[in-house]
Amino acid sequence: MKRFFKLIVTGILSFTLGAGIGLGVIYSAQQSAKVTSLGEVEQITNITKDLASSHRRTIRKSRSSSVRIMSLSDDQQVFASATGTYFTAYGRYFVLTVNHGIQGPCELTRVEASDEFVDCVRYIDLNERVDYALVEIEKLSTRTPIKIPQDVAKDDLDFAIMTEIYYTGFPNGAGPLTLDGKIIGYMSGDFIYVKSYAWSGSSGAGVFASNGKLIGYVLALDVGYTEYGIDVLENIVFVVPVTAVRWDSLREE
Predict the structure, then answer these.
(1) In sequence order, what DSSP letters do the residues of 224-250 get, joined into one string?
(2) Residue 160 — φ and ψ, nearest 5°?
(3) Does domain 156-244 have CATH number 2.40.100.10?
(4) Which terminus of the chain, N or C, has less C-beta within 10 A?
């Protein structure tokens, strides 16, 4: 009787163990067969793990703070689309973009990120000389703002030649698209030359050094002489350094 009972217990344990292994194999197979959804692929934080962790953090910061600015002229005949960097300061929320991306009054300007739209609250500084705009906006739920002044570059080494950079923009209304590049030179202290690429709609995109510090914003492409005459040099991008932005205007009421 004891032997019979022992056989039953052994059989039950064997069956349980076998069933557990079987279920584990089935679960593993199901996970292996699971197809990644488009939504998972498009996550703003879906960044290759082949890069150094510091670079991945910078790209995440760039993508998570990148927004699209859409502005209509007073007569609603002219439409502009530009890129901006979403940031917070003094408990409020703002966007840094290019002034030429602002075509009309605040009430005809909106900010978009991942199909979320928020209104312009007011223009803080529309600077024609350096071509930037500081715009106060409503809080976004789909983006993570960088912090000013904490995330602004202050060290000369942040602007050093061959520093790797990243920026995220909305060229031709597509995006967010993230590009890389390197600082290759300077122009009379006014602009930074970056070897990268940009197209219409990328203007205003925040440019980050690989250490995560904001060094400037995309202004324009270079134009020069080639064997075919005057042409756009698509791989040379003008970047305005953050030192040109009057950040203290954020405190003015």
Answers:
(1) EEETTEEEEEEEEEEEEEGGGS-GGGG
(2) -70, 150
(3) no
(4) C
